[in-house]
Amino acid sequence: MRKVLIVAPTRRDLLNLVDGRVLSRYDLVFEESPGVAGVFGSSDSTAALATVVAERLGLPGSGYDAFMRCHDKLVCRRIQAEAVPEAVPAFAAIDTHQRSERAPLPYPFFVKPVQGHLSQYAYAVDGPERLAEVLAAARRAQIRYLIAEELLDGRLVTFEGFASNGEVTPIGVTDAVMHENGISFLRFEYPTSLPEGPQREMAEIAARLMPALEFDGSLFNIEFFVGDDGRPWIVEVNGRMASQFAPLVRAVHGVSTYELQLELACGGRPEVPPARDGVVAASFLLRTYEDAVVRSAPDPAAVYEALPGAHVELLVRVGQRLSENDDDVLSHRLAVVALSGPDRESLLKRYEAAADLLEFDLTPVAQNSPWHQGARSG
């Protein structure tokens, strides 16, 4: 068994690593230990740290520089524009320290931090007043650099794959289902319902882009908007696994992306079994749209008993104010529920049953965030 150092494991990591296939093949350690063959991290922060530790130990990995070329949205856009220009929207950098309120692109456009996640501080800007509001709020939040991008439309999907020895291998494409506010995710469905053409084009884009980013030896994911004409446009690139989708890949392919990333971390080249016929999976976000204090949280055991194979990740704790959590600007996540079944209709019914069993006692509190107020007015 190969020994793998797990860097600062999250609750999600621990839930997914308690897997018979993983524990039978890897000796997982959580502190410095001799004989480590690989280093593992799944989130933006832990994956970055894992690349640093792996480099210092001379172990396999994507390397910190390649990871950051993906993570820095402006740097990544510039490389995309060279490698896959047909998939890149117009974009421009914004330095919030410069007091000019001049629009960097024609209205409307989208603005987000150069380094950020979970749609935090990300907004559509439809005119000068809105731009001034967003820039002022960014300065208050001490965000120095933003990126403005051409507003995209279409279906939002995530292409996940891995790079090994200069070759990109697709895993699959996951559909995002959004709330009507256009910011908050309701669920992710796998595999995609897109036709083969756009999926093939996304794989071809990834095969050119990841070598241009000098990215190798790790899972990655690329978010795309796919227009009505089937043309994919890159939203962003992440130089890490899409950990929330791991139970979905496990249900459909029989192997988790945690297992794939562990193999890559040890210098191996994993294999992805074909998708099973008649199996679909989804990851649901149980959310509330007002700030509150958590008075009580449910025990997921009731869901596991009622819905065998369910995967529940609680994201809040008793006594916590929801706005303290790492969420988007319009909602607060309470839990992630992953389910599988024969079709999407059955998944929705199973989720309704799970949500009924996950009762949170929440005491509302006043909303006073300038970001929240700005988003409501847009």
Please explain how this structure is put together.
The chain folds into three domains: 68 residues, no CATH class; 61 residues, ATP-grasp fold, A domain (Dna Ligase, domain 1), CATH 3.30.1490.20; 210 residues, 2-Layer Sandwich (D-amino Acid Aminotransferase, Chain A, domain 1). Helix content is 31%, strand content 29%. The protein contains twelve helices and 17 strands. An eight-stranded antiparallel beta sheet has the order 12-11-8-9-10-13-16-15, with helices on both faces. β9 and β10 form a beta hairpin. α3 packs antiparallel against α4. The C terminus is likely disordered.
Which helices and strands occur, and which strands form pairs?
Blueprint: E1 2-6, H1 11-17, H2 20-23, E2 26-29, E3 36-40, H3 44-57, H4 64-71, H5 73-83, E4 91-95, E5 109-113, E6 123-125, H6 128-140, E7 145-150, E8 155-164, E9 167-178, E10 185-190, H7 196-212, E11 218-226, E12 232-238, H8 246-253, H9 257-265, E13 280-288, E14 292-296, H10 301-306, E15 311-314, E16 332-341, H11 344-357, E17 361-364, H12 370-377
Parallel strand pairs: 1-2, 1-3
Antiparallel strand pairs: 4-7, 5-6, 5-7, 8-9, 8-11, 9-10, 10-13, 11-12, 13-16, 14-17, 15-16
Helix pairs in contact: 3-4
